[in-house]
Design brief:
Elements lengths: L1 H4 L1 H21 L5 H26 L7 H7 L3 H12 L6 H26 L5 H12 L1 H24 L7 H13 L6 H17 L6 H17 L5
Length: 232
Amino acid sequence: QFLMANKLDTAMWISRLFTVYCSALFVLPLLGLHEAASFYQRALLANALTSALRLHQRLPHFQLSRAFLAQALLEDSCHYLLYSLIFVNSYPVTMSIFPVLLFSLLHAATYTKKVLDARSSNSLPFLRNLLEKLNANQQNILKFIACNEIFLMPATVFMLFSGQGSLLQPFIYYRFLTLRYSSRRNPYCRTLFTELRIVVEHLIMKPSCPPFLRRLCLSSISFISRLAPTVA
């Protein structure tokens, strides 16, 4: 009754579980490397479906207008719909599947707990303990996802020069990264950029750091800071 009363949430729960399943079989290619590549695409397509459903839930009345598009781009679900489209037809990159896997795992775990609560307050204690441990590490997981989002930017550039990526991919991914940086619901991308800057500045200000490396790092920090969008 609980599942039928929440059909859209249940559909997203199933698609997230399928995303976790496909992502796991890509990361751990138990069925062979050829099959792993197909699971990579399935995971991203399932994530795109979940993101589209979540976006529909957040903005149910679609309008073909600039204002609606601007509102949609503020939603995290729109960001990860774009993310899935960026990588679904690209060369499989293990780093790109971790955000999809971990976000799906976190959201699926939250809804699984609701399903267990609807069934019985004491049902499946072993599964409940696993879900509690996952929830306790949520902040670390979100930081790891943000770290993946950041380091995928140079990875897309490397893929371009190695012949495994398209010319447009780094530019489209840069747009995705600016959306994540400006996210209203998830500040971890901004937080990680700040923390990485503090760590790098601390290291390069040590006397043992070569002057040319210090200048290079300071120039890079200045360049990246100029590219960062303004956050309201």
